[in-house]
Design goal:
Radius of gyration: 19 Å
Number of strands: 3
Shape: elongated
CATH topology: Helix Hairpins
Order of helices and strands: HHHHEEHE
CATH architecture: Orthogonal Bundle
Number of domains: 1
Strand content: 5-15%
Structural class: mainly alpha
CATH superfamily: Stage III sporulation protein AH-like
Largest sheet: 3 strands, mixed
């Protein structure tokens, strides 16, 4: 029988494992920094069309990591009640499930329709940003059907072309 300590250990170990796999599969361009580049305060940063999807992913990853760190701090805080820790743990588990579902949907859209995409799930609302120069209603409908096929309940799906 698994006691609470073993359950916590297994859960946190699986979280560390998922994050390490994510770190390993992250593009090398995001890991490299150039310390020699300086920018003026009023400089305008331009984003190429091909990098919009990567930028959205990076912003989402940053907010997700912030939430994970807050939840981990709550879990490791000894002054918090057990119920609050359990709620933080459940929220952390849900956050991991949503992140993995988003990645799965992105891969499915890429494999099925051959376009790069960014998927963000927020409750029953799903936002899909597709990297395509020409908006196509047929492609948007196909993507919506592909994503909806992964859910048992009706989802509100929005497809945007960038």
């Amino acid at each position: 029988m698994i006691n609470k300590k073993n359950l916590w250990f297994l859960t946190l170990f699986s979280l560390v494992l998922v994050l390490s796999v994510y770190y390993i599969t992250m593009p090398k361009e995001l890991l490299l920094t150039n310390n020699n580049v300086t920018q003026e305060d009023n400089a305008v940063i331009s984003i190429e069309e091909a990098n919009i999807i990567e930028t959205l992913r990076q912003e989402d990853n940053n907010t997700t990591l912030e939430e994970i760190n807050k939840l981990k701090a709550t879990i490791s805080d000894n002054t918090i009640t057990t119920d609050a820790r359990n709620e933080a743990f459940d929220a952390l588990k849900l956050l991991n499930q949503i992140s993995s579902k988003e990645e799965l949907l992105e891969e499915k859209v890429k494999n099925t329709h051959g376009v790069d995409s960014f998927v963000k799930i927020d409750g029953d609302q799903i936002r899909v940003v597709v990297n395509s120069s020409e908006p196509s209603t047929t492609l948007a409908n196909d993507i919506m059907r592909t994503i909806q096929s992964n859910f048992d309940t009706k989802q509100y799906i929005v497809v945007q072309f960038k």
